[in-house]
Amino acid sequence: MDHPDSTWRPSADIETLRARARHLASVRAFFKARGVLEVETPVLGHGGSTDPHLASLSLEATTPAGQEQLWLQTSPEGHMKRLLAAGSGPIFQLARVFRDGEVGRRHNLEFTMLEWYRPGMAFDALIGETCDLIEHVLQADLPRCRHAYRALFQRHVGLDPMTASLDALQDRVAPHLGESCPDWSRDSCLDLLMSFEVEPHLGQGVIDIVTEYPASQAALAKCHSDPDGCQVASRFEVYVRGIELANGYDELIDACEQRQRFEADQRERRALGAPSVEADHHLVAALEYGLPPACGVALGLDRLIMLAEGRACVSDVMAFDTPRC
Amino acid sequence: MANYSTNEFKSGLKVMLDGDPCSIVDNEFVKPGKGQAFNRVKLRNLMTGRVWERTFKSGESIEGADVLDLDMEYLYNDGEMWHFMKTDGSFEQYAADKKAVGESEKWLKEQVSYTITLWNDNPISVAPPNFIELTVTETDPGLKGDTANGGSKPATLSTGAVVRVPLFINEGEVLKIDTRSAEYVGRA
Lengths: 325, 188
Prior knowledge:
Number of domains of chain B: 3
Helix content of chain B: under 10%
CATH class of the largest domain in chain B: Mainly Beta
Oligomer: heterodimer
Radius of gyration of chain A: 20 Å
CATH topology of the largest domain in chain B: SH3 type barrels
Largest interface: A-B, 27 and 22 residues
Order of helices and strands of chain B: EEEEEEEEEHEEEEEEE
Number of strands of chain B: 16
Strand order of the largest sheet of chain B: 9-8-7-10-11
Order of helices and strands of chain A: HEEEEHEEHEHHHEEEEHHEH
């Protein structure tokens, strides 16, 4: 442990912060060369994230409307989609985002999200561009392997995530918990097995891309039927060296379905005992006005810089991590 | 005892798991891209010394364990129990059984201070100081002049422990021993 008096010091050394500045410049150059506009949107909003597994921070502020509760963004998605609806064309942002309680070697309460949207770009093309960006920052040329969630899960876990019974999934999860019969939901079981039995194998010497997530894990992605008729999400995740770097969607643009997903989130939050969060009504209004078909992706920039610099913790590449802020 | 949520977990926190008191060794926050977050926790079972790895949903709570580490002086063994006295001037005594004393039995010397772990006010483990000074009670005669050759021989100490010592050591000498590795450090 550090001497208590040394906590004023940065968590990254100055040389690493110079490297970080070079990576930020190279990300901006990447998008400039591709004609993607850099934007800045507020970190505060009148709505927060309704995702049942994200904890939004909020604060009381004095605004022209009086005293209001505002939410710190967990991602710049809402504001950026409103720009798309207003006709911005392709945009990217280096956004500061906040997720309460997320602290660890690969997490920090606030971190830098590189998020970009490509109206009119096909899902596969955005996967390609995401890998290009990763290689551009890592200065490496890596093979790219694409997997459907279902086949990948079957290979590493030995169960079919779409058809296995809840009992079978709970039995499979039990050894991790030391409980014989956990009463976990289907998605919690899948998340645990994905995190502990699949992810560590991914991105070893390659960029692994996982697609076709179960529809229950679509978040803000469109859904479609896979060749076997299962509903799957048009969502992808990118892994390098066992680390999840990016999450992308063929974006949901149907206002009605967006409203239903917000409501489903709120029901699940209540069931989980999670605090209620004001949904982003401006986003629904923007979708009603009309969002061009678009794919978008969010990438944890601190993790990517951590990999580029050969570090083990995100705090090694941040000026001040949460314990030192 | 209070309950602790996963976001209060930190190394050294004492909690109950499967009916046994445990000390948290490591706590890692893990989250798939979207969805449920987890804490993968390593815990040392204070009864057995074994390290367990368990996964919790982030935000889950578990019961705290009433576990306390206290310095106590070793007094005597009554044939069944080992008796210790608090060093805070209270003269309060505790008796530890064979299971609690365990491997530390061979390092117990009167008037030396040990760390006693109490669970619900009962001793569950006894840890010796890192270094202890003990008298040699039995060893082969010392070889005069052999101080550089690096050979060694077994020596039995006053507590019954057997350690490897240099050839020049004689019975009756007081030696400094590292209890963690059971190695000879030097003459006291």
